[in-house]
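Practice problem: predict the structure.
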Amino acid sequence: MAPFFKRLTVAAALALSVGAAAASVPVAVTPCAGYNSWPMIQALGDRLVCAYSRGSGHTIGEGCRGVFAKVSCDGGKTWSTETCVVNDPDVGEVTIGKGLDDKGAMLLWVRNWGKTRRHDLYRTEDGVSFERISSPALDPMPIQITDVLHVPGVGLMSFWFAGDYKKGDGNSWGTLTSADGGRTWTQRTVESGLSKMEWPTEQSAAYLGDGRILAIARTERGGRCQFQLTSSDYGKTWVRRNTNITDVLESTPSLIFTPDTGLVANYYYQRGARKLKRRVARADVVFQDPESWPTPETLTEGEEARDYDAGNVNATVAGAVHHLAFYTGSTSNTEVRVMSVAR
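Answer:
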């Protein structure tokens, strides 16, 4: 497959008050043709694990679609042979969220869509052997469950959203929490009866301390925007507001908070314009004012046939480096790629 990305010089990146990024050249992770997409990346000890889904096109319910994973022991420069996490011919499996449990093992949410619909949580200590540890009974049934974060006094937390992307007010979102390492989950609805214009989806969150949780969400408006969701009481109550981030089209965000600097990085892919971007802000500032996100940096550019055959950035942190996974390509062939950015 022809290369999709070219590195931008640091001088070409827009300057931020916190400094410009030093980004690596993206490396292809996926080994073969097909619609390799919707990746999740997680730092696991001294290695990186990248899990992704592969099918024949941009569709989630085809039986040929499965979930696979690869491991890197050199910071994303090279990747291991592929492991099959799950590939049931009766459903299409898609990676939808990742994180760590309280013992430091990786957790991976997988959506199963086809003859049956459910969400499974897998656990791995090495990125090679995956064990299914939970298949929670949920109502409403989410379209997606997102990355796992740790909230003191609560345990593990993920966001979910449910709806059908059509006109009407049947959309909702909320949280899942687990006090036993992801074996069982409690579902809570935060907002329901939402129109598509009001509906936050594909949330990514960071715990800032003192009970504060900051989340950024995709919108389904057909326009270009991001929602910001904030809680000051460990997730008991939430406020949803618009941000000033408009250079994005229905693409998944990914947040990383760095406690020692107080900075939060918001990674996202601008579909159509073919740009992977980040905005780095003082977390306490944007928590109070969602319209104060600074000017973005462009980290790399891509080429793809359609807007929706690229995007969905997922990020993890290892030491002083952020590792980003995303995908790009054509209607039938896409690559998952990983790049590294100095925090």
